[in-house]
UniProtKB/TrEMBL annotation:
UniProt record similarity statement: Belongs to the cation transport ATPase (P-type) (TC 3.A.3) family. Type IB subfamily.
Transmembrane segments: 32-50, 260-280, 286-310, 596-614
This protein's name: Metal-transporting ATPase
GO cellular component, one term: plasma membrane
A Pfam family the protein falls into: E1-E2_ATPase
Membrane topology: Multi-pass membrane protein
Length: 660
């Protein structure tokens, strides 16, 4: 099936067909089907039993309840026994059969129904967690238009695309694979991948991602990644891999669970045998022992840990943060110190024109100075050239074609623009600073402020200077403040940049501890010093030079869009959308998850302790014991799943920054 989405008028694209989000149907889960069957059979048998109908009318129905609701956990428990593992599910089935053996068939059937229902709820919750992550895959279209060598096209499933294929993306269509634009100009909505609120202009040479939405122009895109290795596919794979890991708390619970279960079985046997030795009634003694086995089972304790952590992983993944394991999600909430890289982390990682300074007396306006520089730099592939051209495009300046373009490495470029000779490059290389020309003072002033100065000459005469710098992320000051509030300690800046530029940026974001000019090994040393002081350090970085520090830290987070492959592999978590503000958000989410784990353990322990004492000291009715035990299991499971809601993520964001 497919649904048709009509785009608003005026966008240039009329329609787009996308597959609906795959959501697991409840009755597609075997646990839900068996639980539903057991419940229906129980509800049919119950009125017959209560109204005194003949036993032949309700006994087979109750027996069917035992089979439909109990065979699956019972079989799984028997399989676990082969590995010398005592499964609490098996204990529940044994308790139900024990109740039936002493004539309490209704109570045993009730236990089976509630137990099967709680198992179905757990399966549904797990499926919802998986759906919330796999739903990302539905952003990619089912088919793509692949161009053939003869110029024709064929429609192929996107999973059949190969690296090197060329696909045609029409206006309003979603892009089928990660690749690079070969031809065409358009704007692409990349919010699903990068979080950018506005469409991004794309032209020849620009990278595009699977699942993003093309705008008004047609694009020919060369596939550069296998569909299974696209950004979206990697998000899904990493979150699913994380879901298979177990946090230290969970491993501890499982270790205790085995010993506890053996002790509980021993206590149940003692509770049955010892009273009989003193002449107690068989039926009441067995009923008390079965009730004890039920209420003392650690089902709720087992469910206390993983649902909150897995829910937090899924929610973080939906909002652009890949947490690689439950271990990492638990550790994120423990950090009490933060070390931040500069370039690509606190800054955007791409140079921008920050200053346009026409020389006095040159007769040059800022617009004309930038237009000439952009025209001369347009054929160049240097990062500074791209910054100048981008600045001109942002201001909607006309960039004329040039003649006689020449590039001198380390010096700059020259070209004829509108028939006039224009040169753009290093002031020191273009001019002899011994001349004392005023432009040298302007350039020196810019460099003193941490900018890179670029001189523009017209006909050999200086006409102005451009200042270029890596722009600070808008959310950097708020993020630094939030991390300081969370950890209780001021963040540290660790960077390979020069001390002057590092100090200037640190002042802008509110960092006082600046460690500049560091090589990769120096960053590791700085992190180790902090950890020797008893700190659990969170390192946030993006480049190859950050990878050792990311590995050495208690927890490492990499900025995904600008991050190197090595940094992404080394880090414990990845900010896919390149939004720095998600770093404190995911730390807060981790702490929410840890609080829910503690809440769950308290809830489980309280229920178990109260019910066990009631059974040992007084007379706990079996149905009430069943309801209390299974009710606590359901409460714990649902409490852990609270973090699946988007509201859980919204609460992690500072006021005024709660829009995703």
């Amino acid at each position: 099936m497919s649904s048709t989405l009509t785009r608003p008028a005026g966008t240039g694209a009329t329609r787009e067909t996308v597959a609906p989000r795959r959501r697991t149907r409840i009755f597609a889960l075997p646990e839900a089907r068996w639980a539903a069957a057991a419940l229906v059979l129980f509800l049919v048998a119950l009125p017959l039993y209560l109204t005194g109908a003949p036993a032949w009318s309700w006994v087979p129905l109750f027996a069917a309840v035992y089979v439909t609701g109990g065979w699956e956990p019972g079989w799984a428990g028997l399989q676990a026994l082969k590995d010398k593992t005592l499964d609490v599910d098996l204990l529940m089935v044994v308790a139900a059969l024990g109740a039936a053996a002493i004539g309490q068939m209704l109570d045993g059937a009730l236990l089976i129904v509630i137990f099967a229902t709680s198992g179905a709820l757990e399966a549904i919750a797990t499926a919802r967690t998986a759906d919330s992550v796999r739903g990302l895959l539905d952003l990619a279209p089912a088919t793509a238009a692949r161009l053939l060598d003869d110029g024709s096209e064929e429609s192929v499933p996107t999973e059949k695309l190969h690296v090197g294929d060329t696909v045609l993306v029409r206006p309003g269509e979603r892009i089928g694979a990660d690749g690079r634009v070969l031809d065409g100009t358009s704007e692409v909505d990349q919010a699903t991948i990068t979080g950018e609120p506005l469409p991004v202009a794309k032209e020849t040479g620009d990278e595009v991602f699977a699942g993003t939405l093309n705008g008004t122009g047609a694009l020919r895109v060369k596939v550069e990644r296998d569909p299974s290795d696209s950004v979206i596919a990697r998000i899904v794979a990493m979150v699913e891999e994380a879901s298979e890991t177990k946090a230290p708390t969970q491993l501890f619970v499982e270790k205790v669970e085995q010993r506890y279960s053996l002790g509980m079985v021993a206590a149940t046997v003692a509770l049955f045998v010892l009273p009989l030795l003193f002449g107690a009634d068989l039926q009441s003694t067995l009923l008390r022992a079965m009730t004890f086995m039920i209420v003392a089972s650690p089902c709720a304790v087992v469910l206390a840990t993983m649902p909150p952590l897995l829910s937090a992983i899924a929610t973080a993944g939906r909002h652009g943060v890949l947490v690689k394991s439950a271990v990492v999600m638990e550790r994120l909430g423990q950090v009490d110190a933060v070390a931040l890289d500069k370039t690509g982390t606190l800054t955007e990682g791409t140079p921008r024109v920050t200053d346009i300074c026409p020389l006095t007396g040159s007769g040059m306006s800022e617009q004309e100075l930038l237009r000439l520089a952009a025209a001369a730099e347009h054929p160049s592939e240097h990062p500074l050239a791209r910054a100048i051209v981008d600045a001109a495009r942002i201001r909607n300046l006309d960039i004329p074609l040039v003649e006689d373009f020449a590039s001198t490495p380390g010096a700059g470029v020259s070209a004829k623009v509108d028939g006039r000779a224009v040169a753009v490059g290093s002031p020191v290389r273009i001019l002899d600073d011994s001349t004392g020309h005023p432009v040298i003072a302007v350039a020196a002033g810019l460099e003193q402020e941490g900018r890179t100065a670029v001189l523009v000459t017209l006909g050999g005469a200086p006409v102005g200077v451009l200042g270029i710098a890596d722009r600070l992320r808008e959310e950097a000051p708020v993020t630094v403040a939030a991390l300081g509030e969370l950890t209780g300690t001021a963040a540290v800046l660790v960077t390979g940049d020069n001390p002057r530029a590092a100090a200037r940026l640190a002042a802008e974001v509110g960092i006082t501890d600046v460690r500049a000019g560091l090589l990769p090994q120096d960053k590791v040393t700085a992190v180790q010093e902090m950890e020797r002081a008893g700190r659990k350090v969170l390192v946030v970085g993006d480049g190859v030079n950050d990878a050792p520090a990311l590995a050495a830290a208690h927890t490492g987070i990499a900025m995904g869009r600008a991050g190197s492959d090595l940094a992404l592999e080394t880090a414990d978590a990845i900010v896919v959308r390149d939004e720095l503000a998600t770093v404190p958000a995911v730390v807060r989410l981790s702490r929410q998850a840890r609080r829910l784990v503690v809440q769950n353990l308290i809830i489980a322990a309280t229920f178990i302790t109260g019910l066990v004492i009631w059974d040992l000291v007084g007379t706990l009715p079996l149905p009430l014991g069943v309801a209390g035990h299974e009710g606590s299991t359901v409460i714990v499971g649902l409490n852990g799943l609270r973090l699946l809601a988007d509201a859980a993520w919204t609460r992690t964001r500072p006021m005024g920054d709660q829009q995703q």
